[in-house]
Amino acid sequence: DKGNHRHFMQKEIFEQPVVVAQTLQSYIRSVEQQVALPQMDFELSAIERVTIIACGTASYVGLIGKYWIEQLARVPVEVDVASEFRYRDPVLSPNMLGVVVSQSGETADTLAALRHMKAGGVTTAGIINVPTSSMAREVDLLLPTHAGPEIGVASTKAFTCQLAVMAALAVNLARAKGRLDAAEEAEIVRHLIEAPAAINAALAHDAEIEAMAHTIAQARDVLYLGRGPDYALALEGALKLKEISYIHAEGYAAGEMKHGPIALIDEAVPIIVIAPSGPLFEKTVSNMQEVRARGGKVVLISDADGLAEAGEGCLATIEMPSVHPLIAPLVYAVPVQLLAYHVAVAKGTDVDQPRNLAKSVTVE
Ligand code: F6R
């Protein structure tokens, strides 16, 4: 049932404050101000490396997880798409944690990668939405997301719930590795608890994004730029736009522009820049200026500080609430999803059932 929404995708985008809160609730002990994982029969402190395997949108959760886990726990993380990982004879070791991320828990390549890791003696964990799925049954440690059924083919609420669980995993690993004291953890818990309200604030920009979607819908190509976790969001934005609006889109690490992709820029290519203010903001802004100098039309997604500094001269700006860097990807995912959604609606494509795609990819 779509309720009063036009599409399941729209309904699922708007469910995010509730389902992210639900998911966080099962990982946060608010009285102790701690992040907790379900009972496990292995020692997290013995983990020396992490490998995250997934497909599509779920693989971008892995890229963001890499930033979080390496920064908080100082454990090296490798991220790969399942279809590459399973066939490349990866180096496995007993001190490694293999993490699969999947909404359906049935994606053929991810399931095969999970079985490959298990056969190689690797301890596995799964961030999975469907609790009865094959992956949920086979992982050593099930880390459920509580997104509820996701009907729209384009993943939205599963993505932000996966991020919430990935953050919980990063914090637990950091504590197990002696990298996080109680005060630091309590502060992280406070920020995580703020995520649903911040997602709500992001959703409030829906009408504004709908208005600019008509311009983007005219484009033949769209570029998305970001750094750090926002690079993963750039990839996610481009994937979402491609799959539901059929507009060609690419996500790039902002710093890579001058190594080739900048040749694509002209007046006809909108560039979506995802850049919360922070230590890397200046760097991204200078990449944005390079693009603008070549006639590129920029849509800047940032917070009040970022927009005050660099919002002038953009085709459009979208103001996100100011949030802690750990929850920023959960918040900045929202305008990226809404933009793809409204562009697809403006183009009149079948938003919930895009051509050539299936919700659960059980063949390789
Ligand atoms: C994109 C999308 C896909 C899935 C991918 C993995 O919007 O939905 O890229 O993320 O097919 O599916 P799961 O998470 O079920 O393994």
TrEMBL record:
<feature type="domain" description="SIS">
    <location>
        <begin position="40"/>
        <end position="179"/>
    </location>
</feature>
<dbReference type="GO" id="GO:0005829">
    <property type="term" value="C:cytosol"/>
</dbReference>
<dbReference type="GO" id="GO:0046349">
    <property type="term" value="P:amino sugar biosynthetic process"/>
</dbReference>
<feature type="active site" description="For Fru-6P isomerization activity">
    <location>
        <position position="359"/>
    </location>
</feature>
<dbReference type="GO" id="GO:0004360">
    <property type="term" value="F:glutamine-fructose-6-phosphate transaminase (isomerizing) activity"/>
</dbReference>
<dbReference type="GO" id="GO:0006487">
    <property type="term" value="P:protein N-linked glycosylation"/>
</dbReference>
<dbReference type="GO" id="GO:0097367">
    <property type="term" value="F:carbohydrate derivative binding"/>
</dbReference>
<keyword id="KW-0677">Repeat</keyword>
<comment type="function">
    <text>Catalyzes the first step in hexosamine metabolism, converting fructose-6P into glucosamine-6P using glutamine as a nitrogen source.</text>
</comment>
<dbReference type="GO" id="GO:0005975">
    <property type="term" value="P:carbohydrate metabolic process"/>
</dbReference>
<keyword id="KW-0315">Glutamine amidotransferase</keyword>
<keyword id="KW-0808">Transferase</keyword>
<dbReference type="GO" id="GO:0006047">
    <property type="term" value="P:UDP-N-acetylglucosamine metabolic process"/>
</dbReference>
<feature type="domain" description="SIS">
    <location>
        <begin position="212"/>
        <end position="354"/>
    </location>
</feature>
<comment type="subunit">
    <text>Homodimer.</text>
</comment>
<dbReference type="GO" id="GO:0006002">
    <property type="term" value="P:fructose 6-phosphate metabolic process"/>
</dbReference>
<protein>
    <recommendedName>
        <fullName>Glutamine--fructose-6-phosphate aminotransferase [isomerizing]</fullName>
        <ecNumber>2.6.1.16</ecNumber>
    </recommendedName>
</protein>
<keyword id="KW-0963">Cytoplasm</keyword>
<keyword id="KW-0032">Aminotransferase</keyword>
